[in-house]
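Quick question about two entries, pasted in order.
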Amino acid sequence: MPERNVDSRLHDYAVITGNYWAFTLTDGALRMLVVLHFHTLGFTPFEIASLFLFYEFFGIVTNAVGGWLGAWIGLNRTMQIGLLIQITALSMLLVPESMLTMVWVMVAQALSGIAKDLNKMSAKSSMKLIARDQDNGLYRIVAFLTGSKNALKGAGFFVGAILLSVFGFQGAVIAMVSMLTLVWLLSLLLLRRELGVMKNKPKFSQIFSKSRAVNWLSLARFFLFGARDVWFVVALPVFLHETVRWDFWQVGGYLASWIIIYGFIQAVAPKLTGRDQTPQAVKAQLVMFGGLLTLIPAGIAIALTRDFPIVCVVTFGLLLFALLFATNSALHSYLIVCFARADGASLDIGFYYMANAGGRLAGTIASGALYQWTGLEACLWISTLLIASASITALLVPGEDEGAA
């Protein structure tokens, strides 16, 4: 009987991870497809960035509602619904080119944002139910899932560019719809066990966490991801295009390479942070790595005002930022799975990723506005302040027992 349980958990883990990988690959490819294709149609960089605002906004809404929905109908079903919505979003882009207006694409991106966060919330919450935290197994599983997701999203940038050059925009979208439809059908066949359904169905008001640990950790996550996106999402690509004079393919490949490196570091984070992975030890590491991370955007901002080669400054700074940010993010992802209640993990994890999406939305808007008004250096200084805020907030995260709901 125990062996069967282990085999069942491994089977579920393999199906969920494969599902998450396939979705993430197409999510990264879709972003590159939209950016490149609409750039060729004459959209400005800021108009292209605005296409993704609904994507981030509806991520907030989805994480709020998705955790509650998962507790009612099961995480396997919310994951499968997420796949189906992504297939719908991709299919919307198969209309004639004259119908690809800004509003139409923003609606498609809104659906894609809903699909992405349903998929992510389902996968992360499932790990709480599948893993058994012995010998830090939970930390390794969560770090691997999160890191591999980010590496595959970066790889998706390359896949999107290749599909666009070989098959054209509509051909590339058809290829992704076909692949995701196959993954969705396999998921329906292979993942039948109900995961995460609460015995006592939660009220909708319970989407807001009552755990001090989850609430403070969520606020720290808001600051952390706002700090990344305030300079990385819009300001940096436009800076490389306008100031360094790189063409769009160089910018896309450069950023994709960074995301892959970042994902790899995140996947191996348990080897970088030591053996003591109790919540108190991890909280101390969050503060330490956060303090070091604060120095990176500040250092880049200062170096850009000196007579140093711009590409060398940005590349070296990005590599250090990847190392420290990925480690911070992995520790965050582990802590939220630890602190989430056993019965209804999706509620706490959904609330946490709602804060994550909120930080990304705020960072995306600020990135475009600050760069347009003042330049990249201002974005980097705001990033520094936000990282410092995340580290200070991490100090307020209580221990595991204090933080239990």
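Here is the second entry:
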Amino acid sequence: MDKLTMGDRIREARKHKGFTQEQVAELLDISVESVSHIERGTRLPSMQVFVKLIEVLNVSADYLLRDSISTGRLFGDNALGSKIEQLSPKERIALEALVDTYLQHHI
């Protein structure tokens, strides 16, 4: 398992959600130092923290572990998911805002 890649993905997902390390630490009931170590790839999260990370950041386990398994996808195996996966983090944030706006006016 590549700790650096996992840490990068966790950092990306945290920023995508607009959370600070302090907020994530509080939600996970761990220290900010621990969050920093996990994001830098110097430490792996415990299984309990890993599960909480998935819930807090709203990502799949296979997304965080993708270098260790060959079938991982963040958005599922469909045409839209494939297109979304090609977007940059900034583009994903813009798309999410666009979808939120659409849903507020059409539901």
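Reply: Residues 25 and 32 are 5 Å apart (CA to CA). The chain is about 65% helix and 0% strand. Hope that helps.
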